[in-house]
Design goal:
By secondary structure, the chain is an alpha+beta fold. The chain is about 20% helix and about 30% strand.
Length: about 230
């Protein structure tokens, strides 16, 4: 079953009900979705627990959500042919989606999960989930860098979306993006005459890297509306 189907569709196509039986089940007050009695043809998801007349029709899926500090030198890929791929170095992550990549030379926060819908929600620019990075460049930052990066820089033929810049030191700044083009920060800096010598992602949506060290990870919980909180 794909992510959103009406409960009547589920009963007919996945539980062997006829259309008439499915409607009677909806009207019977014996159909329960996530501990709530259903009396209308509501939408259900693959994660939902569905019970009819005390019989389990679909068990609730308990997804796994992990915050991982990716070390520098690891490729964010499931490709086992790449020696330093994520799954070769951390095979326990093989079945997990990752929300947004970090290139080999960058380090910092990755969000890993069995929940493909949430992974897409965090990674796709249409949802405008903020991602925060600390960036060190190879020379003193010119006073125009902040305004140029915040209004957008043309890379790969397209202008980047507006972002937020905070200058931290002479050659270090914090950048908050809502998109994630391939090697975007490095390309933006290069276009403005800088070379990135250190790049670390410190935040994805409401999750922060905190005091985690490279190679460490921890599980977190997500409420039904997909708003995060740390367990």
């Amino acid at each position: 079953m794909s992510f959103r189907k009406k409960i009547k569709y589920f009963l007919v196509h996945h539980s062997g009900f006829t259309n008439e039986q499915a409607q009677k089940a909806i009207d019977s007050e014996k159909l329960i979705v996530n501990d709530v009695v259903i009396s209308e043809n509501v939408f259900v998801n693959v994660e939902d627990e569905i019970v009819f007349d005390k019989k389990m029709l679909q068990q609730k899926i308990k997804h796994k959500y992990i915050l991982f500090y990716k070390p520098k030198g690891i490729e964010t890929t499931h490709n086992k042919k790449i020696e330093n791929s994520l799954v070769n170095k951390f095979p326990e992550f093989e079945s997990l989606f990752f929300a947004g990549r970090l290139d080999k030379d960058s380090e910092g926060l990755l969000f890993l999960t069995t929940d493909g819908k949430l992974a897409n929600n965090l990674a796709h620019p249409i949802f405008k989930k903020e991602k925060e990075y600390i960036v060190q460049v190879n020379k003193k930052i010119d006073k125009t860098l902040k305004s140029q990066m915040e209004t957008g820089v043309v890379i790969m033929g397209n202008k980047t979306a507006p972002c937020l810049i905070e200058i931290i030191e002479n050659n270090t700044f914090k950048i908050t993006l809502t998109e994630g083009k391939n090697r975007q920060i490095r390309r933006m800096c290069y276009k403005l005459g800088y070379e990135v010598v250190f790049l670390k992602r410190t935040k994805i949506a409401d999750w922060k890297i905190g005091n985690m060290k490279a190679g460490e990870w921890r599980e977190v919980e997500v409420i039904a509306s997909h708003l995060p909180f740390v367990s």
